[in-house]
Amino acid sequence: MAKLITYFAHPGQRFSRSNVAMMKAARGVKDITYVDLYEEYPRHDIDVAREQQRLLDHDVILFQFPLYWYSTPSIIKEWQDLVLQHGFAYGHEGDKLAGKTMMLAITAGGPQEAYTAKGYQHYPLRTFLTPLEQTARLCKMRFAAPYALYGALSAETDREIADHAAGYANLLAAIRDDAFDFDAADKHDVLGFDTLAIKTEA
User: CA 24, CA 183: separation in Å to the nearest integer?
Assistant: First the structure.
């Protein structure tokens, strides 16, 4: 059984349908650690020692957030700046996270076709995640294909959000149970609820 911690960050979650649905689904998954960063650190006074111990205690570190101005909400950047210290996460003797996995569960406001060379975002969604992918590599971590919902601001039906939230819960449970096939997932740039790489018993 893998030890999974999920960090949730949404500064305007009272206005969110998709991320709140994902949060509720995730909190129903047993035997994982779920942290709402804005709830736990409303003044951004991040407890570095506590967070570093959390990282040491878990195998998979997953961040759930809406894509804000092509980046993370600010508290995740603050968390990174403080927690991923030289000598701990990278640099001389900074190998404490080596071999662990980083994964993202993100929502994007624009439709999938916007994240193409001809779309109004001009680049694939994965391109905007490059700083996080490189952060994982610097920390000697694996960066897994992200779980993403496009068009989150204009999801046409509650069913679409419900399917994505249910898929999120399935993803977390599969990671916990060592039933998620990271190698198969990495054949995709981005995962959806219908492309989860969950192992099936022979």
Answer: 28
